[in-house]
Design brief:
CATH class of the largest domain: Alpha Beta
Number of domains: 3
CATH superfamily of the largest domain: tm_1862 like domain
Helix content: 40-55%
Mean pLDDT: 95
CATH topology of the largest domain: pyruvate-formate lyase- activating enzyme
Distance between the termini: 45 Å
Number of helices: 19
Length: 490
């Protein structure tokens, strides 16, 4: 059997890093972990080929080579996924689609003949048997949440490591919280399920022995989902790091109550974690209550950020504009909070109602839905009738993003991070790509770019006051370039 695995193209978004990747000579920021996991369930004797449209083109010959094409997509991939489906249909090759895009919107994809809805692990046995028999069903639907301890090591061997800036590994699915706007509970449940620490270390070891020397993203919905198991994992990762000395560092996603866990943060740093994405959303307490983001209430959010920074972890923050309680001063309030807290990577998005979420159902019942979200909340679009005037909301959002990523304001936050972030963990690896990226940034950002004066002042400040963190400072300048382009293109 010949199976073609296709990952759709990701549009130019905040997290695509498309404008930063040329500096490090990479083609994509992240790998298609879902497809790599599905591939591990297919018989080893089958021929498999991965085409990631973020790093290569999909030819007609690729499609015609395959007995089956498998496509995994998220909401943001809708246009690319539809194009792949059309081409498979035109060439007469059966297509099997899976992932969040289809799980929450199956009725909108009549062009895809076979769908796997929900988490696929417990469905793969039946699917493989039906593929062999040539009788693949129209729909395979998750009946219960799978046990992650039974998931094989993803097929990282299908990748060309040179194409990617970051690898991905998963430890936990599900989140104990239930924010109104989030689709994590809908897709993965509220009861966190984890792999064993040994299982995760096997995956990390597979990456290390294959030659990976860059960052690894633990793509958990909430890394703190099961704290005792997280601590067990971190101790196992520390032992693995001490034994093998990998040139790998880690980033992940966690709720803001990470700031209440000094022991856990210390273990994370010792295990090689350097960054954590935190959903801060808004400093407005009433808006937090209204969307059920209760874990962010009854705390000083800026102080929580400082605690995480002080532990040695950079906070990448998620923020939302468009809550019903937002007034015309929301843009200035968000700006002041982000600047004061020193959240350098601040993903500010417009609230969108994702299919199936409690927010989606509420707005539908109120007659306020306008259209379906495409999953990109940083493209200056909102799919429902907002309380704040739409023109004011969109123009205020554009202006906020541009202010946040102007060189002077961006580097001001970066100086706060360098001052507050206690770099006590293993040093991130510096290789020829990092050196090349730095020298390329000297020309593009230090000579050609209009923000060159602020660039040189920032690097000079970092070299004089934070020499140990100079590598981080140089990387921040390149990330800032990407975010600035995204903001200017809104």
């Amino acid at each position: 059997m010949k199976v073609l695995l296709v990952s759709p193209r990701t549009p130019d978004t905040f997290w695509s890093f498309r404008h930063a990747l040329p500096f490090i000579k990479k083609k994509a920021g992240h790998v298609p972990l879902g497809l790599l996991t599905v591939a591990a369930f297919l018989p080893r004797e089958w021929e498999q080929k991965l085409v990631d449209l973020n790093v290569s083109h999909l030819s007609d010959a690729d499609i015609l080579w395959a007995d089956y094409v498998m496509l995994s997509a998220m909401l943001v991939h809708r246009d690319s996924a539809v194009d792949v489906a059309r081409r498979c249909n035109d060439l007469g090759r059966p297509l099997i689609g899976g992932g969040p895009l289809f799980t929450t919107g199956r009725e909108t994809f009549p062009e895809i003949p076979h769908l796997v809805l929900g988490e696929a692990e417990d469905l793969m046995g039946d699917l493989v048997r039906d593929m062999i028999a040539g009788s693949v069903r129209p729909v395979y639907k998750e009946l219960k949440k799978p046990d992650l301890r039974n998931v094989p090591v993803p097929r990282y061997d299908l990748l060309n490591f040179k194409d990617y800036a970051c690898m991905s590994v998963q430890f936990c699915r599900g989140c104990p919280f239930d924010c109104e706007f989030c689709d994590v509970v809908l897709l993965n449940g509220r009861v966190p399920r984890t792999k064993t620490p040994d299982h995760v270390v096997r995956e990390l070891e597979a990456l290390r022995t294959a030659g990976w020397k860059g960052p690894v993203f633990l793509v958990d919905d909430n890394f703190l989902g099961h704290k005792p198991r997280v601590k067990e994992l971190l101790r196992r990762m520390i032992e693995w790091r001490e034994r093998t000395g990998p040139r790998i560092d880690f980033l992940t996603e966690a709720s803001v109550n990470l700031a209440d866990e000094p022991e856990l943060m210390s273990l994370m740093v010792k295990a090689g974690f350097t960054k954590v994405f935190v959903g801060i959303e808004t400093p407005d307490v009433e808006n937090l209550r209204s969307c059920n983001k209760l874990q962010n209430v009854r705390r000083d959010l800026a102080e929580s950020v400082r605690k995480i920074h002080a532990a040695g972890l950079e906070v990448m923050g998620g923020f939302i504009i468009g809550f019903d309680g937002d007034t015309e001063d929301v843009f200035q309030r968000q700006f002041e909070f982000i600047q004061k807290a020193g959240v350098v990577t601040a993903m500010v998005g417009l609230l969108n109602a994702l299919p199936g979420t409690r927010l989606y159902r509420r707005l539908a019942s109120e007659g306020r839905l306008l259209d379906e979200s495409d999953g990109n909340n940083t493209k200056c679009a909102c799919n429902f009738v907002t309380k704040l005037g739409r023109d004011e909301l969109l123009s205020g959002y554009r202006e906020l993003m541009r202010r946040l990523y102007e060189p002077e304001t961006y580097y001001e936050r970066a100086r706060i991070l360098l001052r507050e972030c206690k770099l006590s963990g293993p040093s991130a690896p510096i290789g020829w790509r990092e050196v090349h990226a730095f020298f390329r940034s000297l020309w593009h950002l230090g000579v050609l770019h209009s923000g060159r004066a602020a660039y040189w002042r920032f690097l000079g400040h970092a070299l004089a006051h934070h020499p140990r963190a100079f590598g981080l400072a140089a990387a921040l300048t390149i990330y800032g370039h990407h975010f600035r382009v995204v903001a200017q293109n809104l």
